[in-house]
């Protein structure tokens, strides 16, 4: 098991998640992981940052799949003894062409975003208990973006 610090950013193969990984790779003293449900997209995102001279790593993670969550949790526990930083960026969205009524879409998003988090602690929360020096903090991304190199 490595003593190297590790940061994991969920849903980070594009957009804000990829920008967070880019900033962490430049500033964080440890390994930074891109995660994505699609291996090809995750590997492509990783390759794009490597081409820019950064050193991210990739691990497949579909946060809507409990087996995928359990596998990722097992990997990080076995490899690093836990996770030092978790940026919970992944989310779901409906495609514009989806014909589901808005109320159905809103309810599915609400359930996913709010209730799903209660399924994660059995897998994820124990990963944060690495040593007495570690602590778990919860912050809203918008309130902490300056610390990652983003301008307000």
UniProtKB/TrEMBL annotation:
InterPro entries: NAD(P)-bd_dom_sf, SDR_fam. Belongs to the short-chain dehydrogenases/reductases (SDR) family. The keyword NADP applies. It comes from the Eukaryota. Coiled coil: none annotated. Gene3D superfamilies: NAD(P)-binding Rossmann-like Domain. Keywords: NADP, Oxidoreductase. One of its GO terms (molecular function) is carbonyl reductase (NADPH) activity. This is Carbonyl reductase [NADPH] 1.
